Amino acid sequence: MSSNREIMKDAITSAGTLQIEGAGGLLSPEQSKKFISYMVDNSAIMKDIRVETMHAPEKQLDLMLVGSRLLRKPTEATALSDLTGITTRRKELRSVKVGLTADISTDFLEDNIEGTDAKERIAKELAMQFGNDLTDLFINGDTDAVGDDASFLTIGDGIVKQAKTSTATHKYDLTGQSDYQGVIFPGMLSLMPNQFKRDRASMRFYPKLARILPLP
């Protein structure tokens, strides 16, 4: 079995391209798994979210939600009338093709300061850059963007645009607010559904998102 080091190293061929044997430009399943793993491990946001590996252009996720404050005080020999069920929801994921290119000459791979370790180093650096770009797109993507970065931003809508347009998003207005500990954090928590408040250790606050998501 190939080691992680060999997998990453072999992701770059002597021709300087990421490849699957016989089809330059693609990764083998084993290489892609390692590439994605390295990308996630080096991204703070990706380590905090659910990452789905897709083997087809579309994928459906079935979710089940249980409400909060379900306990009631019963009356002897009387059935509870205030009943609450579970909520099921289906999310559909659609993949978008993206490409990251790097022009690497054969001479460089054969004659460089790191020697044969250069292939592994380059593969890791590309994985890290891919992760950085994906995080940027995850936050700032906008299919209606124009300007110099439009070719990048229009790949897909990011969380900022989706949160602003979604009626299901809990928004807290930061306009004129500066006291995070005494006002902002308690205000944000008050908007959060009760069932998500129990695990405070798993909560995350991203200042960038907070700054660019004020109420209209």
Description:
α1 (4-10) packs across α2 and α2 (29-41) packs across α4. The longest helix is centred in the middle third of the chain and has 23 residues, at 118-140. The protein has 8 helices and 4 strands. The protein is elongated, with a radius of gyration of 23 Å. The strands form 2 sheets. The protein has a two-stranded antiparallel ribbon with strand order 1-2. It has a two-stranded antiparallel sheet with strand order 3-4. The chain has 216 residues and is an alpha+beta fold.
Largest sheet: 2 strands, antiparallel
Number of distinct helices:
8
Distance between the termini: 55 Å
State the shape. elongated
How much strand content do the residues show? 5-15%
- C-alpha Rg, in Å? 23 Å
**Percent in helix:** 25-40%
> Strand pairing plus helix content: what structural class?
alpha+beta
pLDDT < 50 runs, ≥5 residues? 12-23, 212-216
**What's the β-strand tally?**
4
Gist?
The chain contains 8 helices and 4 strands, in the order H-E-E-H-E-E-H-H-H-H-H-H. The protein is of the alpha+beta class.
